[in-house]
Amino acid sequence: MSTLSARLDSYAELRRALGYKPEADARLLSGFVRYLGAAGQPTVTVDAALAWAAQAPTAPAGAARLTVLRGFARYLSRSDPACQVPPVGLIRANKVRPAPHIYSPAELAALLQATATLVPGVWAATMGTLIGLMAATGIRPGEAYRLQDEHVDLERAALSIVNSKRGKSRRIPLHTTTVEALTIYTEARGRAFRSGGAFFLSAQGACLTSHDAAPVFRHLLGVASIEPAAGRRRARLGDLRHTFAVSTLLDWHQAGADVARQLPVLSAYLGHNDPHATYWYLEAVPELMAVVARRLERAWEGRQ
Question: 0.70 cut: is pTM over it?
Answer without folding.
Answer: no
